[in-house]
């Protein structure tokens, strides 16, 4: 019989890659989605074909990390073997604007799922999406599983609660619960307000004349950036290990925002200094200056390693966004021609 996984945050970057990965492994996947006034399943539409087909292995259920009753019902009804808790208000800058909401979803949401597990009387394996933001104002470099936390944002404080409550349920109730302390991971599916994707979207639109400027904040911050597809493998590997534990997942290389700009604009033969302007709106009240992870433990125990390096990551994002920009340009000129046709100006 196939294994059953439940994924919160299935419509996000990681949720979509993880779901692809689990379906390929033969899992039945249940995903929790939120009701929205517009469609929010773009990243998983290609996986969700015919919900009425008898062999459909992906099912979407309405629920919310802020709504215990929906979580209790979903867990009772689905009885998953593995739960991946990826749902979160995941934007660090935004967490300063909506700290209380971030604490509810990103922090307390985790204990709501853990309690729903107890309520349902089941013993699934549990993955918690922890973050390198826990290290914040780092006390040592590189950061390992033993590095003390120093959270620097409401988001990171919420993730600290989620981290410790996951450890506590492992120790209190013998739950197979793991924290994946993942460093930044990006992709062609990354949300467009995170700096990597904001840069690749803008650089490619500038290249095609669709945009003039790119406004950014602190260019000196350094991040250990990996490829999201590589990182979802690690989530699964943690739940297949003999013992539940916590792991740092990182590439072991760090780069500044300036270096990201060099690589992205350079790939398009552009000089970013001609297009980038600093807008203090994008500064954060407290910044995380440097992140650099040491994933020796994951490499040794799980046999995990990243496959895509920084240069390849930036290039694959730029190539993808260049295609998007070409489509945008083509549909714009089609639109212009259609308008001209209606008004009788279309001469070609
Ligand atoms: P993402 O693209 O922002 O996706 C977040 C997901 O959470 C979306 O599916 C979102 O649904 C869902 N969500 C938000 N609020 C919810 C709520 N109240 N109830 C249920 N679901 C809710 O994030 P990601 O980059 O895939 O990251 C996945 C997880 O890993 C997050 O927990 C993030 O904090 C953590 N993390 C990410 C990184 C990284 O570099 N990407 C690194 C470390 C840890 P909607 O589509 O409806 O908004
Ligand atoms: O910022 C700087 C910004 O928003 C990276 C989330 O997935 O990874 C992510 O959090 C850096 C920061 O990611 C802009 O100040 C400059 O130093 O892309 P980001 P993040 O804050 O590192 C961690 C691991 C998570 O867990 C989170 O969920 O880039 N930066 N100018 C900017 N950042 C943004 N967003 N926009 C700018 O214009």
Description of the molecule:
With 348 residues, the protein is an alpha/beta fold. It has a domain at 4-190 and 226-253 and 292-308: Rossmann fold (3-Layer(aba) Sandwich). It contains ten helices and 13 strands. The strands form four sheets. It has a seven-stranded parallel beta sheet, with helices on both faces. Strand 5 (125-131), helix 5 and strand 6 (177-182) form a beta-alpha-beta unit. Helix 2 (68-78) packs parallel to helix 4 (99-120). The model is unreliable at 339-348 (pLDDT under 50). Ligand F7E is lined by residues 90, 92-93, 131-133, 183-184, 193-196, 198, 216-218, 221, 223, 257, 282, 284, 287-288. NADP nicotinamide-adenine-dinucleotide phosphate (NAP) is lined by residues 8-15, 32, 34, 36, 40, 64-66, 86-90, 105, 129, 131, 182, 184-185, 191.
Which terms summarize this structure?
348 residues, Rossmann fold, seven-stranded parallel β-sheet, two-stranded parallel ribbon, 10 helices, globular, disordered C terminus, binds ligand F7E
Could you give a quick summary of the protein structure above?
This protein has a domain at 4-190 and 226-253 and 292-308: Rossmann fold (3-Layer(aba) Sandwich).
Helix fraction bin: 40-55%
Label the overall shape: globular
Ligands (ions, cofactors included): NADP nicotinamide-adenine-dinucleotide phosphate, ligand F7E
Tell me the name of the CATH class of the domain at 4-190 and 226-253 and 292-308: Alpha Beta
Poorly predicted ranges: 339-348
Tally of extended strands?
13
By CATH, the superfamily of the domain at 4-190 and 226-253 and 292-308 comes out as NAD(P)-binding Rossmann-like Domain
Q: Summarize the helix and strand pattern as letters.
A: EHEEHEHHEHEEHEEEHEEHEHH
